[in-house]
Amino acid sequence: MTGSNPPCMFEMRPSPGCGYGLYATQDIPQGTLLLRETPVIQIKTEDVEPLDEVDVALAKVLPTLSPTDRDAFHALSRAGRDSDEALDIFNSNAFEVQVDGMDRLALFLTGSRFNHSCAPNVNRDWDPDEQCMSFYAICDVKQGEELCTFYARPLETYAERQRYLTTLGFVCHCSRCDPGEEEGERERLRAESDARVLEYQSMEDALEGHKETDADRARQSVSDMERLVTEEFGPYGVANLFLRGVYAMGREVGLCPCVWDKEYTRHYTERELEMIVICQGDGALAQSYRRFLGS
Ligand SMILES: [Zn+2]
Fold it and tell me: Which part of the chain is the SET domain (predicted)?
């Protein structure tokens, strides 16, 4: 589904510590499509070994851009400190995508300006057939708030997130990484957040086994993961994106031979559908869920 681009609901402004960012110019309800954009550069990373040779591929692509696009590329923020300016810009701004099951890095002149947050209010949804990215507000956003997506997986610990973000050349100071007012409180809140994330990760790992052999523990894990995600992301108002994953696991648990519970499956499928509409729009995927529920 291509569709037309929505009216612009954000503007670019300086973002403290992050160069520039995109800020809402109006109140935006959850589920709103913010932007649909085709990448200006795509590099097939599976053809590029070692990955350091992205610079070689980039050097071939840049001269093929129009002068306007090339200027816009060089105006993007640069977090890294490599000597190669173009490579720094690309690494700081490209998103991983897949086409025909193959990994690529894709750079967007507008979408790449969404900064990272570990409590993101913007989801990305890549359409491999149309090769375009849609960006959705996953919660209600107030006028003046920064719109942020994520580069590091939010469901990792503080240290894991920062380790990955360091490879992109920056340190995250989002509200989850720097919570609270004072150092002591910050350490305590980070430790509590990490404990929730680690508990979630171990439940997610164990669920694969429980789904096959232990229906009660599988069901318990799904409700515990829902609680953990709500506790971790609810205070930032961005739990929807992560609940979508938990509800998908609930649906899978309901369909497992050792559980096989139609009502349970239906309950989680309905809730997953609500989250899909918010985080990925009411498109072909949502329709396929409605067909499943109607059958
Ligand atoms: Zn962060």
Answer: 8-152
Residue 183 Cα to ligand 1 middle (Å): 16
User: Is the model's pLDDT at 157 over the cut of 50?
Assistant: yes
Q: What is the pTM of this model?
A: 0.92
Query: What's the CA-to-centroid distance between 74 and ligand 1, angstroms?
Result: 26
Å from CA of 294 to ligand 1 middle = 40
How many H-runs (helices) and E-runs (strands) does the chain carry?
A: 9, 10
pLDDT tens readout for residues 40-95: 999 988 755 555 678 888 999 999 999 999 999 999 988 766 667 898 899 889 99
Q: How far away, in angstroms, is 14 Cα from ligand 1 center?
A: 18
Per-residue CA distances from 26 to 31, 36, 135, 213, 238 (Å): 15, 18, 16, 50, 18
**What is the spatial distance between Cα 37 and Cα 132, in angstroms, rounded to a whole number?**
5
